[in-house]
Amino acid sequence: MRVVGLISGTSIDGIDVAAARLDLREDTVQLAGLGYLEHDYPDWLRDRLRAALPPGSCTAGELCQLDTAVGKAFAEAAGRGMRELAGGGAELIGSLGQTIYHWVSGERCLGTLQLGQPAWIAEATGVPVVGDLRARDVAAGGHGAPLASTLDALWLRDFVDRTQRPAAAVNIGGIANITVVTREHEPLAYDTGPGNALLDEAARMVSGGTRQRDTDGALAERGSTRADLLELLLADPYYPADPPKSTGKERFNAEYLHRALRDLPPVEPEDLLRTLVELTARTIAREARRHDVMTVLCSGGGTRNPALIDALAMSLGAIELRCSDELGLPAAAKEAYLAALLGWLTWHGVPANLPSATGARGPRLLGSITPGRAWPAGTAEPAAPPRRLQVLSADPSHPIHGR
Q1: Distance between CA 175 and CA 220 in Å, rounded?
Q2: CA 277 distance to own-chain centroid
Q3: In the 8-state DSSP scheme, what is residue 302?
Q4: d(CA 204, CA 202)
Q5: What is the Cα–Cα distance from 108 to 342, expressed in whole angstroms?
Q6: Whether 195 contacts 174, CB under 8 Å
Q7: Which residues pair with 15 in a beta bridge?
Q8: Is 250 left (phi over 0), alpha (psi -120 to 50) or beta?
Q9: Using an 8 Å Cβ cutoff, are 253 and 284 in contact?
Q10: CA-based R_g, the chain, Å
């Protein structure tokens, strides 16, 4: 089955699009990547989305308009994915949408809201869409995140069996998350804290809004870590809290950064970026060490920042740092492939959450299905839950094996 996956992360850079051919062989999901692309948001939409994020305010009218605008942008992205990646067509689209608010109170997630109305995607493409993938897990007592744990637990199983040592997948988007896979225990996953969120806010702050990010870590590379600021940031109670846990820009935003800087001596722009790089690197590395991980496989937009990756490698010390590309999943596209996988699992009647990671009361079918132009006859019977994910080349007879 050809599936297109769509997601826009908390950095709101644009829409990640991936197409894959997915199949089930006994207890193994076979994922043959057909390619990926990035579909930019128009500047006006990106600006309005960022203005709607906390601590900004958003009216019901603005929320409705944004839901439609994001839905139309996702529909354009899906069309490109079908034409440019999937050979002109696909049987299913999985959409994780654009997270606009993630409501966490204390240790519980009480709600989560993703924009990008699936009806616009289904109407434009004629293909059924599985969307709103987080809400059911939240309703079942989970955090609805990180759903990357579903892919990671399947994907890393063979790697852990082969190497005989625990491994972790880390995705560094606006928020960073970790999935820990061992042979002895159920997989564990949670958000470690800010990935690029505070870095991007700082870049906009020091540039007066002309920079959206510290491209290639150029500013951070020239700076030095401010020990007083780093100590203050690391004291945030989120970090020592036990999982399951999740967070977002509701916590780690521009106002958060302004509060941290308010009572400190002035911080030079380069030092601010360097300190935030260290914050992300150290909080990820702390969690990898906490679970005695031997290998970290990294993905997400943060992998494009050499200052951040160098700092993470330094903080990890003896823990091996590798890129997800080495096991067949491109770092920039992994979460879009996740959207495709989640949609495919739901379509086949297979629970797609990982309760040991999200904290849900049990496995749940995720999302809502928006039909395409016609409901397909002979919809597949529910399959048994798979145990592994095998990443293939475009030719399904040739699996990709990690080195």
Answers
A1: 19
A2: 19
A3: G
A4: 5
A5: 23
A6: yes
A7: 39
A8: alpha
A9: no
A10: 20
Token readout for 142 is 């989970």
Read off the pLDDT of residues 270-282 as tens digits, 9 standing for 90 and up: 999 999 999 999 9
Instruction: Look at residue 10 in the predicted model and tell me its pLDDT.
Output: 84
Which tokens hold the place of 376?
A: 């397909």
What pLDDT, on a 0 to 100 scale, did the predictor assign at position 93? Answer: 98
How many residues are listed for the chain in this entry?
403
Kindly report, residue by residue over 89-127, the tens digit of the pLDDT: 899 999 999 999 999 998 899 999 999 999 999 999 999
Please tell me the predicted confidence (pLDDT) of residue 212.
79
Q: How far apart are CA 335 and CA 145, in angstroms?
A: 12
Sheet holding 320-323, edge to edge: 188-194, 175-181, 167-172, 295-299, 320-323
Q: How far is CA 205 from the centre of its chain?
A: 24
255: tokens are 């106002």
CB 17 within 8 A of CB 4: yes
Task: Supply the mean pLDDT for the chain.
Answer: 93
Amino acid identity at 47 = D
62, 44 Cβ separation under 8 angstroms:
no
**Distance from C-alpha of 149 to C-alpha of 188, rounded to nearest angstrom:** 8
Confidence of residue 393 (pLDDT cuts 50, 70, 90): confident
**Residue 395: partners with Cβ closer than 8 Å, 6 or more residues away:** 32
Peptide bond into 244 cis (omega under 30): yes
- 139: enclosing H helix or E strand: helix 135-139
Angle value at C-alpha 34, between 29 and 39, nearest 5 degrees: 120
pLDDT in tens, 60-80: 999 999 999 999 999 999 999
Q: Which residues of 211-230 are buried (b: 16+ CB within 10 A; e: fewer)?
A: bbbbeebebbbebebbeebb
**pLDDT digit string, tens, across residues 198-232:** 999 999 999 887 777 887 888 999 999 999 999 99
Residues 6+ apart with CB under 8 A from 324: 169, 297, 298, 299, 330, 331, 334
Interatomic CA distance for residues 286 and 315, integer angstroms: 8
Nearest partner of 90 among 118, 120, 127, judged by Cα: 127
